[in-house]
Amino acid sequence: MHGFEKLYINGEWTPSRGRGHIDVLNASTEEVMGRIPESTAEDVDLAVRAARAAFEAWSTRPAAERAQVLQRIHDGLTARQDDLAKTITGEVGMPLGLAKPIQVGTPITVTGSYVKLLQEFAFEEQVGNSLVVREAVGVVACITPWNYPLHQIIAKVAPALAAGCTVVLKPSEVAPLNAFLLAEVIHEAGVPAGVFNLVSGTGPVVGEALVRHPDVDMVSFTGSTRAGRRISEVAAATIKRVALELGGKSAAIVLDDANLKSVVKRVVGSCFLNSGQTCSAHTRLLVPRAMHDEAARLAAEVAASFTVGDPFKGEAKLGPLISDTQRTRVREYIQQGVREGATLVAGGAEAPEGLSKGYYVKPTVFAGVTPEMTIAQEEIFGPVLVIMPYEDEDDALRIANGTIYGLSGAVWSNDVERAKRVARRMRTGQVDINGGRFNPLAPFGGYKQSGHGREFGRYGLEEFLEHKAVQL
Ligand code: NAD
């Protein structure tokens, strides 16, 4: 049981001005595994004032010194990786064997990447008679979701601190415990008081108080398109810079020369990772019509091999979803798919056998899905793959580009040049060819209603910088 009674403000563990608490549930037992304070707008104000007061000294420190501080955060995260992984597996439900390298290993790598980048990044350049200076934006509010909680926090906090910004973090109230562990690491790393602050609570109360606050210069948000829209509206009142990483409905396009058997295995794996709660998951499998039935047969076979169960035990490939709300939502989408006439080839809306506790959903595959169906358009955020037949390359691209989202995608082909031509026509922020791996130095972010702004590498650092032109 992790009981966190206090917020981290101005370098100290500080009691909330409110009296409320939020219970954090274990996704596989449905039992309370921790508690956090339910902050108030007063707490937010205190945290923002601390961040504002710390800004000038932090932003004018030499970059090499900020790199040393980030190195100590990196080392602290590394030292606590087992504790972090177990906490996240409890909160989110991802199997522990995957959570350690993905949920904790990636944030450690990303923190390290900013240590290195600070050693080579040019904060100044001469353009004609101007000295162009890159300077920290100011006080940044980071608001993050629950599905890869530490990863999404570090994707913001590491580059923001590297840039010289000061931060107020509001993690998801559904999986916040890892953020409190991070605050402990940050404290032990000797980050100066006020540079990093943590408040906890719900989006409409604590999140909006941050977005509205006149002393916050930028909001960096990851979460649903719905909340992103609301944040843009509220932030407009004070003309804040806003970076949004939102939802997705990404397509994997299989070209007719691809090896269907190995592709289907990889796409199902990508779709079901973290029980399908991955914003960039390839949740639509687009195949030439002639290959459709075989793709459906293969996908059903792969889905059946996904053992569902306790994420702390070795044999489970698929843990529970994060919450009852999420489980209900996903089951309703599955029922809707059946009602709209898609063919259910694996899984279904009923609970998996033998699991009386935990927010489990069966690994599910629909075939014969057409573009106008709800399950082809909306983000389900569960272990549900839809298979869609297409007529030719133009048709595949029309279907792939035919949603409000544009976060990610994939192309599978034996001809890499052909795959690249197709990738260039996809309206998404990233495309993986033949299973290309996640690259922590490449820009990550969305087109269309998947948001704007980019995270990771130098693109992620630049999000938190202003340009100043000094004419000489
Ligand atoms: P959510 O939008 O409900 O919540 C995300 C965060 O925003 C939480 O901290 C929440 O408290 C806060 N929030 C909610 N309403 C708010 C408001 N009105 N003002 C300020 N803050 C508010 O999303 P979620 O359910 O936690 O996460 C799932 C969603 O996140 C999915 O749609 C998923 O696709 C998306 N996501 C996107 C990315 C990406 O990088 N593009 C990554 C992960 C998740």
Compose a concise summary of this entry:
By secondary structure, the chain is an alpha/beta fold.
Please render the helix and strand layout as text:
Layout (H helix, E strand, L loop, with lengths): L1 E2 L2 E4 L2 E4 L5 E5 L6 E6 L3 H19 L3 H17 L1 H12 L3 H25 L3 E4 L2 E7 L2 E5 L5 H15 L2 E5 L6 H12 L7 E3 L4 H10 L5 E5 L2 H12 L4 E5 L4 E5 L5 H13 L9 E7 L3 H13 L19 H16 L3 E4 L17 E4 L6 H4 L6 E7 L2 H8 L8 E4 L3 H9 L7 E2 L17 E2 L4 H6 L2 E7 L1
Parallel strand pairs: 1-5, 8-9, 8-11, 9-10, 11-12, 13-14, 13-18, 14-17, 16-17, 18-19
Antiparallel strand pairs: 2-3, 4-5, 6-7, 7-21, 12-20, 15-16
This protein binds nicotinamide-adenine-dinucleotide (NAD).
Portion of residues in helices? 40-55%
Low-confidence stretches: none
Number of beta strands: 21
Proportion of beta-strand residues:
15-25%
Q: Which whole number gives the mean pLDDT?
A: 97
**Number of H/I helices:** 15
Bound molecules: nicotinamide-adenine-dinucleotide
Q: How is the largest sheet built, in terms of strand order?
A: 15-16-17-14-13-18-19
Class of secondary structure makeup: alpha/beta
Sheet with the most strands, sense and barrel status: 7 strands, mixed
Radius of gyration: 22 Å
Task: Using the alpha-carbon principal axes, give the shape.
Answer: globular
- End-to-end distance: 60 Å
Structure commentary:
The protein is an alpha/beta fold and 472 residues long. It contains 15 helices and 21 strands. Strands 15-16-17-14-13-18-19 form a 7-stranded mixed sheet, with helices on both faces. Strands 10-9-8-11-12-20 form a 6-stranded mixed sheet, sandwiched between helices. A 3-stranded mixed sheet has the order 1-5-4, with no helix packed on it. Strand 8, helix 5 and strand 9 form a beta-alpha-beta unit. The mean pLDDT is 97. Bound molecules: nicotinamide-adenine-dinucleotide (NAD). Nicotinamide-adenine-dinucleotide binds next to helix 7 and helix 8.
